[in-house]
Amino acid sequence: MKSREHLVQRLGKNINGYFGESIDISAVLKDCIAAARARKWIAEKLSAVPKLDLLAFRRPASPGIRESAPHDSRIYISAGIHGDEPAGPLAIRQLLQEDQWPADASLWVLPCLNPTGFVINRRENAEGIDLNRQYLQPKAQETVAHIDWLKGQPSFDLCFCLHEDWEAHGFYVYELNPDGQPAMAEKIVSCVAAVCPIDNSEIIEGRPAHKGIIRPSVDPRSRPEWPEAFFLLTHKTRLSYTLEAPSDFPLSVRVAALVEGVRGALEGKGKT
Ligand SMILES: [Zn+2]
Questions:
Q1: How far is the CA of 70 from the centre of ligand 1 (A)?
Q2: Could you read off the pLDDT of 173-219 as tens digits, one per residue?
Q3: What's the 58 CA to ligand 1 centre distance in angstroms?
Q4: What DSSP line would sit under 101-166, residue for residue?
Q5: Rounded to an integer, what distance in angstroms lies between the CA atom of residue 149 and that of residue 92?
Q6: Which runs of E-coded beta strand occur in the chain?
Q7: How close is the Cα of 205 to the center of ligand 1, in Å?
Q8: DSSP classification of residue 94
């Protein structure tokens, strides 16, 4: 398929920060709850703090599949840890509403890890804390609740963290794959390329990149401030993808990029 790269241009309005659209996060989360309930997903609240809408949705693999398959495929997807990255929660809403998943997939889906940040359209939470630096020594109530909840879940075969980057020239993805499992990053990028430009820079965020893929060789133990993906890699998974949509492009393009990225990775992982 011909790439839309030539048709979609940077907006040029996100200089030194994100100045694009914000979303009504409580309305988006209501839509997510309605979609999850309609399809009999299990909805949980992660925090007892009133007015802190930290939600998780779970769906077990189809019963027939679960009995016949040796192992269901356990997939975790989170979004909205940065309150100025609206495409993530919107992508999760679309994925929940469309409800197309591999039948052997058991799913854990968290649509918004930083609900107070979205109210002020800011990366940090209402207390000014970047929640994606909290996962080694958590102090923020959001992160404490998230980690408590994660400790009660099984390990995951595959994790996605959905993000946006206002500096990016296109979509890119971080792959954390320490055991050298079959990589999905190329598939993710090729699926996203049909709907969104790819950032082909050779250095992205100070790391070597190749055709929109960053494979950081980082040892989490060497870093003092852990993002969510480091906690997942250390305690819950051996394969993690952080998808970064480019904020300086139309919101509909960024949402499509994240949706297609997840879809691309899951394609071929079983029947939907
Ligand atoms: Zn982010």
A1: 35
A2: 999 999 999 999 999 999 999 999 999 999 999 999 999 999 998 78
A3: 23
A4: --TTEEEEEES-S-HHHHHTT-SS-TTS--GGG-SSS--SHHHHHHHHHHHTS--BSEEEEEEEET
A5: 19
A6: 42-45, 55-59, 73-79, 105-110, 158-165, 172-176, 203-204, 207-208, 213-214, 240-246
A7: 12
A8: H
The rounded Å distance from CA 19 to ligand 1 centre is: 15
CA of 63 to the centre of ligand 1 (A): 35
User: In this structure, how many other beta carbons lie within 10 angstroms of the beta carbon of residue 63?
Assistant: 8
Task: Indicate the length of the chain as a whole number.
Answer: 272
State pTM to two decimals: 0.93
Does residue 146 contact residue 235 with C-beta atoms inside 8 Å?
no
**pLDDT > 60? residue 5:** no
The number of beta carbons lying within 10 Å of the beta carbon of residue 47 is 18
Q: What are the Cα distances from residue 129, in Å, to 70, 135, 243? A: 42, 12, 22
The single-letter code of the amino acid at 197 is: P
Cα gap 173→198, rounded to integer Å: 10
CA distance 159 to 241: 6
Which amino acid, 65? I
In angstroms, what is the span from residue 40 Cα to ligand 1's centroid?
30
Beta strand 240-246 with 158-165: parallel, antiparallel or unpaired? parallel
Ligand 1 centroid – CA 174 distance (Å)? 12
Instruction: Label residue 32 by pLDDT band (50, 70, 90).
Output: very high
| Neighbour count for residue 153 (Cβ, 10 Å) | 13
